[in-house]
Amino acid sequence: MADHLGIIMSNTLNAIESSKEEIFLIAETTRAESQRLTQELAMLRVEIHETIENVEKQQKIERRLRQRLMEVSRDYQTYSEKEMMETYAQTKDVQVQLQLSQSKELQLRTRRDEIERSLRQMQSTVERAENLLSQVTLAINLLHGGISELSLNQSVEEKQEEIGLSVVRAQEEERRRVAREIHDGPAQTLANIVLRLEIAEKLLELDPGRVRAEIKDLKNLVRTNLQDIRRIIFDLRPMDLGDSGIIPALNKYLHNYQETYRISCEFNVDGKEKRVLTAKEIALFRLIQEALKNIAKHANTDQAKIHFNFEDEAISVRVVDFGNGFNVEQAFDNPGDHFGLLGMKERVEMFNGQFSICSSSGKGTTLEFMIPTQKGEGMV
């Protein structure tokens, strides 16, 4: 009965995770379209302003020519037929141009109103999608906890407590990881941008020529910061392991990782591939992801090795780099830049696994972890 219920919950979980990816894509597509419309709206407002100024100029000319036409018509004996025809033609031309400009202004205003309505609707869609993502994420976490506890002989109250604690621990660990990512990356860069903008503001009066070069550097810095933010968002995206499993997902991630960081990764897989609980597959993926990001940040190397081993009752992983290395005891006593290691250790221990690090200055780092699996956890 428990096995049958586990299969049902696993299928439900896969369906919800797939739906979560779709919701995320809807939000991202809507957000991108919103940005495009915002740019169009800004250009449209400039064009409306220019058109209004042009209409006002043409109205002044048209009023002046109508006045002139009235004078010519009133004192027709004073003016020749040619002068009367020229005045009439000029007035007619200006009136036509004025009508065209007014029509253009009306069209631009209509388009502006449409974009503003669309932007409000898109913003509402993005907010609803984000709220729905939060609710779906909570449901996924609860299902993960529920599946992992099905095989244990516990009371209902104990199971509920364990599930709740697992969800809270997972959420807090993920919050800490994101906070570290933002603090070490975009937050530092933004602080630097603010400082340099203040310098550029002072240079504007003292040495305007240097301001142009400073602004150019700041533009490049902003672009880099935007790339970091997009990378963080990409790392936060829900994974769709689907029918393919963790190995194809890791192959895809390693391909992007090597292109981004210019670090060559040797990836070896031993044992007969099997599917395990989705929660464990995601944990394994995130652990390898964190290990590789630490290598990119701290190791100062262009090579890394990942060994993934499917054992009978466990999955073990070894990640090796050939970089700077560090003092492991000092890192755990004073986390600092290595605070992510504590999060990795906690994540492994949540699944009753084992975690170890071997490293020394100048000799690289070897990180190993093992997560136990249960019989019948979906052999491929």
Report on the structure:
This protein is α+β, with helices and mostly antiparallel strands and 380 residues long. It has three domains: 151 residues, Helix Hairpins (Orthogonal Bundle); 84 residues, Single alpha-helices involved in coiled-coils or other helix-helix interfaces; 131 residues, Histidine kinase-like ATPase, C-terminal domain (Heat Shock Protein 90). The protein contains eight helices and five strands; from the N terminus they run αααααβαββααββ. A hairpin with a 3-residue loop joins strand 2 and strand 3. Helix 5 packs parallel to helix 6.
CATH class of the largest domain: Mainly Alpha
Tally of domains: 3
Mean pLDDT: 78
Rounded to an integer in angstroms, the radius of gyration calculated over CA atoms is 32 Å
Return the structural class: alpha+beta
Provide the β-strand percentage band: 5-15%
Task: Give the CA-CA distance, first to last residue.
Answer: 22 Å
Number of helices: 8
Work out the helicity level: over 70%
Q: Which architecture of the largest domain would the CATH scheme give at its second level?
A: Orthogonal Bundle
Strand order of the largest sheet: 1-2-3-5-4
Shape: elongated
Element pattern in H and E: HHHHHEHEEHHEE
Largest beta-sheet details: 5 strands, mixed
CATH fold description of the largest domain: Helix Hairpins
Low-confidence regions: 149-154
- Strand tally: 5
